[in-house]
## 1
Amino acid sequence: MVDAGPVQDGLIGEVAGLLRDADRVTALTGAGISTESGIPDFRGPQGVWTKDPKAERLSTLQAYLEDPELRVRAWRLRMEHPAWDASPNAGHRALAELERKGKLHALVTQNIDGLHQKAGTSPDRLIEIHGTLREVMCMSCDDRAPMEAALARVRAGEPDPPCRTCGGILKSATISFGQPLNQGDMERARAAAEASDVFLAIGTSLTVYPVAYLPGVAARAGARVVVMNAEPTAYDRSADVVVRASIGRVLPEIVARV
Ligand code: NAD
């Protein structure tokens, strides 16, 4: 768990004030909002890639398509993924509460763990811009199926189960490096950033593009941008407010004052 120390009460009040005055808040979340649910991020101090830089290859589309051994390892990791046993934490619940208060216009998440839905965020406000771990997709025919069924095949002795429809390579329905984003999702995310009067970037290092452009898109369209992250991010110097804090501790306090 990241603990960035005490946060000034004034800063919490300032962000709560911005949210109170806002009509349309768009939030962008990253792996940092789920670390307090026991899912490690990639680049934080306990991040998967911080500890093992070679693990990045597992998220690269070309390596996945070319290397059967890497796919076998990827299936084993999917089986053991902490998301299966994870529950939403106070940060996820605070964003669901912000929606109930009528403030949340859209929630763009880079996370693939499904915890925002579990916390109660409405599917029509949620854009899973990097896909979901809860489905698999065929890299040849685009067929989609529940992850659960594919994992049952791995458990039953198929270490790299092929697509049942065409025999192609199956992968989690997440966006790997080298794989294009869903254009419709990216357009919705961009439109939500442009329509917002406050844009919250929460628990993301803002280093994965094109998503990392969204705070700038929002700012150019007139939004106030708040960055909430335990460590410095790529957008801190341009943000209106930077809250360096543990999300699960501070976000509920802010939303309670809205
Ligand atoms: P990242 O790993 O690059 O950055 C996460 C940031 O969150 C870090 O800067 C870290 O300091 C901060 N952080 C961690 N715990 C925090 C906490 N409790 N409070 C405040 N800040 C905290 O993550 P990213 O920017 O989302 O980019 C990584 C990519 O990896 C994304 O595309 C995402 O899809 C994927 N990913 C997803 C999950 C998940 O679904 N939970 C987990 C790991 C990676």
## 2
Amino acid sequence: MSFDVAAIRKEFPILSQTVDGKPLVYLDNGATTQKPQVVIDSLVNFYTQCNANVHRGAHQLSDEATRRYEKARDQVATFINAAHRNEVIWTSGTTEGINLVAKGLAQQLEAGDEVVVTEMEHHANLVTWQQACLQSGATLRVAPIFDNGELDLDTFKASLGPNTRMVAFPHVSNALGTVNPVKELTAMAKAYGALVLVDGAQGIAHGDVDVQALGCDFYAFSGHKVFGPTGIGVLWGKQSVLEDWPVWLTGGEMIADVTYQSATWGALPNRLEAGTPNIAGAIGLGTALDWFSNLDIAAVQAHEKALIDAAMTQAADIQGMRLIGTAPNKIGILSFVMDNAHPADIGFILDRQGIAIRTGDNCAQPLMHRLGINGTARASFSLYNTLEEVSAFFAGLRKAQTMLG
Ligand code: PLP
């Protein structure tokens, strides 16, 4: 199979838009990815053909909705190579998945216990653990990074110990693009019997995630970052760990028996999925993952590497541009600051040229402070971006520099 970026782009209707008369150059894929027509169609089909609640209707629409919804769970399980379909818990996104785990663990943590995160966390994987520690009296340890955005593995290892209960880190940093050695980090944590949660928000769309091979206990991701809808995500957890995981949301769907005085919980996956789920979103995500799986992933990765390589090369020619995040193993995220130009101004001028990037603290304020900056401008690439768009971005940047300089 080969990778035809022009053909891929045709599958994404939004990419043919113009912004103020300029062709849209969408380079904010770290924030959210665009959706192929098949995903949009699957949402429309659901609402036009079989909208009904799942698992409870005594009618055909509900049966069909349930069939499609549960098929989507299978599609996720296949995509991430889960050992069992009931290890796939629907959430609203990465943030909720991490909260589900942290709120559960907070019920068990005690003073003396330790949770280890890294300096490169998105707020979703920092504040959540910080609060769990504050509530329970446990200690939060923050493993440092080097100035290039790479995790300091020796110090990470030294941060672990017999009191470590949970180790949580990103597969890929949203602010730096650093790809962490998940297997290696997991093995270090497992040497102390700690649980491991991987924040997969940025990792899921850039490679072949195999949760069994990674060896972690939890992997959380969002549908919208992997060509699926917003408002749907997945927490994958090992069945043996999830089975007894404390529930944090209670209500319909998740119970076995209820009296006015007490309740017992149902079996996985429903025991961790209280309330009516995002049915259309789950179906849309299943479609997105199937669509993605049908691509030649090695060719996709090679294309994305060509984009970031081209961007790094062209960045070297821009005077006064400093890249934030230059770890040897990084994916298509180009964060940077420029002399005499505030990121917000850069973003504004690029937007006037139809080029969409992210500016600000990247939801990682402590990381920005660690790096001695307040924020960055960030271009993030996806499989449908082209080398021409990379060049258009740098042309736009030069213009911004002239206007602001
Ligand atoms: N973790 C990382 C590394 C992210 O990049 C993001 C979103 O940008 C999140 C967590 C949170 O994802 P969501 O807002 O979809 O829950």
